[in-house]
Amino acid sequence: MKNQFLLAVLTMLLFSICVSAQSDYEIVQSFKSKVQQLEQQLSEAASLDEINNIARDIELLKDQFSENKELLDKSLYPEDFNKTFAKLKSGVEVRALDFTQIEVLQTEVIVLRDEVDRLNTRNRELINQIAVLQADKNKDVETIRKLESLVTNLKASLLKRDNLILGIVDSLTPQLTADVSSLSPEDKQKIAAQFESNNVLNNVKRSLRDHVRFLDVTTLKPNDIKEIKKQQDYFVSTWQKIGVNLVDVYADKKEKSNELKEIDVLFGNWQTAIRNEAWNSIKEEFAINNIFLLDFKSGQEFTVELTRFIDEEFKNYSIKSKEDSERIYAAFVDSTWFKSVQPEWIPYLIDNKMLTAQQKSLVEAKVTEWKNVVFPRDITWVYYVIAALLLVTFLYFLLKRKPKTLNAKEELKQ
Amino acid sequence: MTKTKILLAGILVLLTYSCTSLVLKPADFSWPIESVLKIDDNGYAKEDRYTFSFNIKPLFYEEVQDSLAYLDREVRIIRNIEGFYFITCAGFKNVYVFKSSDGSLEMENKVMVNEAGLTKPVFNQRLPLIELIDGTDKYYLTKKGIEEDKK
Q: Per the structure, how many domains does chain B have?
């Protein structure tokens, strides 16, 4: 404030000196220098208040030099008095708009941050409730319905929180769109402070952990996993865009650099969890029908485990009762393989390169082989057909021989 | 004889008419403000806005009899409405009036202003005159010299 007053006094003094000297050249030079000074202040302004002060100084300058308008119009080639002020005012408007936008975004960030905090609590509660219900071995219809509803709510809630976090990141990114490596250490510090005050890194980490935990406590269908994968792809691509710049911003802060590395690891965990979720859900599909398989985490392990189970059934075929073998076959093949695994999961696995067509054919061939063992083909009808054919042939020849006998008798009569 | 005289006079009139040069007027050559030109190491003063330059060394020789006196100096120059250039410099006693010629500036007049030399001279355009201020002193110039009644 004191400095501004001093500056104003000096300006007035300089102006009065110029006027008293009555040198047109000095007046023009003084005007040009003040305009340049205001332009510089505009580009360096750090708040809307500063911009407003500059706007007032511009008005003051216009008043001070209005009596020299004619001289300045002739001297400020290729501009003139009015054009110079129009340019300054347009600069003020542009910079004011920048700060207005930043203020709106900052308000938006505060609202989003509160919402994220609320969703963090809600998601934690939902995950805990799901875990309790999932652990219940004797789920009745009501429990299953409640569980499904909770899972749906949690899924929507996780998605909403992801979008809010990305919203916060979006609101802060105007400062990250420039070439961050060219920013001064002070500017980098400012950006880092904003990310820290909005708890961005922690929220991203919490979100990623919750996603992994959600996948841990739920059993999902291929369509659900597809949806989650799509969500993950969007989250990853958006984060990658700013992550690169954040590495630059936090280059000097080892602790924060480590946090960024941790986020990368958590993204990896989420990706692995999505892959594992598919295998676990397939295992769960079999378990629902009392087919208990060993863990598998890849197409190779899946093929080996299914083949092993069927081979085991071959070995036990003569030991177990026929009814038992048929019951296990029906549970495996009819109720699980043909009902959900083959139509729903196999296309998902192949689309996501988790299973090869060759591995799929191998399992299918094994299933067919199993069918032939449990339900051997009945070929009695073939014997009947052969017998019938023989009978028809015999009758044919028999009927064909009769007329010849009659003719022989007639010949004997003659 | 009289007829011959009339005929000759007619031819003379026609010739005079056809030789009259084309004149565009009025023309205003005045600069709104003076230019302050830094002289380069080679003794050239260059005006950017009106894009012309000239060798100033002879002027310094004329004023101080030292053609190297231009080093690190600034000259002040302004053009009046008629197109004459008024040039001076701090320390000069005179204001020099030039007119443009074939690829040169040709001195029209040398106006003695202050025997002790000018301390901080500045020019202003005060149509139709050129105002010269040196501290508290003011002079009004034309190509012919100081307008005494305006001083």
A: 1
Residue of A21, A25, A74 lying closest to B34 (CB–CB): A25
B77–A contact, CB cutoff 8 A: no
pLDDT digits (tens, 9 = 90+) for A297-338: 999 999 999 999 999 888 887 788 888 888 898 999 999 999
On chain B, the residues whose CB falls within 8 A of the CB of A74 are: 32-33
The domain in which residue B142 lies consists of 29-147
Q: Under an 8 Å CB criterion, which residues of A touch B? A: 21-26, 28, 71, 74-75, 77
Q: Which residues of A touch B125 (CB under 8 A)?
A: 24
Report the predicted TM-score, pTM, of the whole model to 2 decimal places: 0.49
- Is B130 a domain residue? yes
d(CA A131, CA A53): 59
Q: Are strands B44-47 and B129-134 parallel, antiparallel or unpaired?
A: unpaired
Candidates A211, A176, A214; CA nearest to A195 is: A176
A253 has a pLDDT exceeding 80: no
What is the band of A1 on the pLDDT scale with cuts at 50, 70, 90? Answer: very low
Within-domain flag for B24: no
Please report the number of interchain residue pairs, chain A to chain B, with beta-carbon separation below 8 angstroms.
29
Peptide bond into B26 cis (omega under 30): yes
Distance in Å, alpha carbon of A90 to nearest chain B alpha carbon: 26
Looking at the domain assignment, is residue B22 inside a domain? Answer: no
Q: Are the C-beta atoms of residues A4 and A57 closer than 8 Å to each other?
A: no
> Residue A19 above 50 pLDDT?
no
Instruction: Determine, yes or no, domain membership for B14.
Output: no
Q: What is the pLDDT of residues A171-196, one digit of tens each?
A: 766 556 556 666 777 777 777 777 77
